[in-house]
Amino acid sequence: MVKLNGRVAIVTGGSRGIGAAIAKELAANGVKVVINYNSNNEAADAVVQEIEQAGGEAFAAQADVSDAAQARVLVEETINKYGKLDILVNNAGITRDRTFRKITEDDWNQVIQVNLNSVYNMTTAALSHIQESDAGRIINISSIIGQAGGFGQTNYSAAKAGMIGFTKSLALELAKSGTTVNAICPGFIDTEMVQAIPDEIRAQIVAKIPARRFGMPEEIARGVLYLCRDGEYITGQQLNINGGLYM
Ligand code: NAD
């Protein structure tokens, strides 16, 4: 088991939903957390406040992680503030759902840029620092849609499957060094992303989930905690947290 006290993490897209839950869970376990946000500084500040009130340490840092230069600045800010980096959680993501016939080039490019290229941008900026840690962790928040596909989600599915391939290849390259690289594949989790789905479709989805409910962001956060604290011999894996929807 790795002592998390004093370790430093970046959580991309950490101001709400799954990212905010991950930031809070890590902070509650002694990790200093950089909460990256793209536009909503009020939401990011609220997460920082909640963490501080609970006795943890965090700061909010603006960056569009789909932009390589901004990703580099985010990592530099982290090093300037905390002096090191142990954990990178690539969580930022968007959907632009349309059936393939209706998808525009822009829908395609944006989803690949934000979900997949951001993982390259952040990992390449952070890697030399993470490798200095005795328990480096890279955790990519992929999706069940990257494993099973999703109607109207060719762009998102391609990006999330790309994250899984990236995870396995980088895990192979880094395994000897003690840095682990894993993907978490959530099923349908009750966040704004899923709340945006029309009620009728949401009901159809729940009916297909063996657990008969959406997951909670905290249930993904506990998976991240597990990989960070207990996961020294777990690398290149997909941790499925989906209520049994995909096995
Ligand atoms: P969300 O929309 O609530 O949160 C996504 C976060 O990413 C937001 O804070 C957003 O501002 C941020 N973000 C978007 N583009 C960004 C950019 N360019 N730079 C920095 N931040 C950016 O969604 P969520 O449900 O919390 O999703 C979190 C992650 O989990 C995403 O990668 C998503 O694809 C994945 N996921 C979600 C579900 C689900 O059911 N909710 C299922 C599987 C995977």
Automatic annotation (TrEMBL):
SUPFAM superfamilies the UniProt entry points to: NAD(P)-binding Rossmann-fold domains
Origin: domain of life: Bacteria
Keywords: Oxidoreductase
Pfam family, one: adh_short
Annotated Ketoreductase domain residues: 7-187
GO MF term (any one): acetoacetyl-CoA reductase activity
Keyword check for Oxidoreductase: yes
GO biological process: one example: monocarboxylic acid metabolic process
Cellular component terms (Gene Ontology): cytoplasm
UniProt record similarity statement: Belongs to the short-chain dehydrogenases/reductases (SDR) family.
UniProt-recorded name of the protein: Acetoacetyl-CoA reductase
Native source species: Aneurinibacillus danicus
